[in-house]
Specification:
The complex is a heterodimer of chains A (114) and B (110). Chain A is mainly beta and 114 residues long. Chain A has strands spanning 4-7, 10-13, 19-25, 31-37, 43-49, 56-57, 68-72, 75-80, 89-97, 102-105, 109-113. In chain B, strands 2, 5, 6, 9, 10 and 11 form a six-stranded mixed beta sheet that branches. In chain B, strands 3-8-7 form a three-stranded antiparallel beta sheet, with no helix packed on it. In chain B, strands 1-4 form a two-stranded antiparallel sheet. The chains are: A mainly beta (114), B mainly beta (110).
Chain lengths: 114, 110
C-alpha cells in the first residue's frame, strides 16, 4: 500500500496571500492527483500532477491559481494563490498504485481564508 | 460525460437492519466502480471495488450495467458502520483519476 502525508494539516490565511501544501508518498507511485472538498460537497479533481512536466488541470482550474509541482515520483506540491474566502476547503493529495489498481488519499489540508 | 450520483445525502438505520446505499453512474465506456469510506477523523479509504467481487466488513456491491448502478449493501448494520460513503468511478485502463459522487452519510442507531 501507499502512505501519504500532507503538510500543513490545517492553516488559516489572509485574503490575497498564497499557501503551498506539500504531499509526500512513502513509495513510488505512478500518478498523483490533487482534489478539493468544499464544505458539504464531494471531492472535485483539481489536476493530475505529472512528474517533470506541467500538471494537467480539470475544467475550471488554472495553473495561475493552483500551480503544482512534482519533481519526483514521491513528492508533489499544490499552491493556492491569491486566496479568497471561496478557497476555504479541504485539499487532498492522492496517489495511484497501478500495481494494486488502488488510489490512496492523504489526510487532507484544511484551509480557512479570512 | 462521467458522473456518479448518490441520491441520498443521509441514511439512518437501526442496528441490525439491512443497509443499501444507492449509486448510479454515467460513463461512455466500461468503467471501474469503487466504494470509498471515511470514518470520523480518518482519511478516505477504499472499501471495495467491483472488479474484485469481494465482501469487506460484510458489505457487497454488484455492478448492474443495465441499470448503470453499483449499490452498496449490508444485511445487518453495525454501529461501527456509521461513516461517510462515497461511490466513485474510473476508466478500466486504471490510470485515470477517480470521479466521486457527493457521498452518503450513514448513521446506524443503537
Amino acid at each position: 500500500s501507499a502512505v501519504i502525508s500532507q503538510k500543513p494539516s490545517r492553516d488559516i490565511c489572509q485574503r490575497g496571500t498564497s499557501l503551498t501544501i506539500q504531499c509526500q508518498v512513502d513509495s513510488q507511485v505512478t500518478m498523483m492527483f490533487w482534489y478539493r472538498q468544499q464544505p458539504g460537497q464531494s471531492l472535485t479533481l483539481i489536476a493530475t500532477a505529472n512528474q517533470g512536466s506541467e500538471a494537467t488541470y480539470e475544467s475550471g482550474f488554472v495553473i495561475d491559481k493552483f500551480p503544482i509541482s512534482r519533481p519526483n515520483l514521491t513528492f508533489s506540491t499544490l499552491t493556492v494563490s491569491n486566496m479568497s474566502p471561496e478557497d476555504s476547503s479541504i485539499y487532498l493529495c492522492s496517489a495511484l498504485l497501478l500495481a494494486r489498481y488502488e488510489q490512496f488519499f492523504g489526510p487532507g489540508t484544511r484551509l480557512t481564508v479570512l | 460525460a462521467q458522473r456518479v450520483t448518490q441520491p441520498e445525502k443521509l441514511l439512518s438505520v437501526f442496528k441490525g437492519a439491512p443497509v443499501e446505499l444507492k449509486c448510479n453512474y454515467s460513463y461512455s465506456g466500461s468503467p471501474e466502480l469503487f466504494w470509498y469510506v471515511q470514518y470520523s477523523r480518518q482519511r478516505l479509504q477504499l472499501l471495495l471495488r467491483h472488479i474484485s467481487r469481494e465482501s469487506i466488513k460484510g458489505f457487497t456491491a454488484d455492478l448492474n450495467k443495465g441499470e448503470t448502478s453499483f449499490h452498496l449493501k449490508k444485511p445487518f448494520a453495525q454501529e461501527e458502520d456509521s461513516a461517510m460513503y462515497y461511490c466513485a468511478l474510473s476508466g478500466l485502463s486504471g490510470n485515470t483519476p477517480l470521479v466521486f459522487g457527493k457521498g452518503t452519510r450513514l448513521s446506524v442507531i443503537a
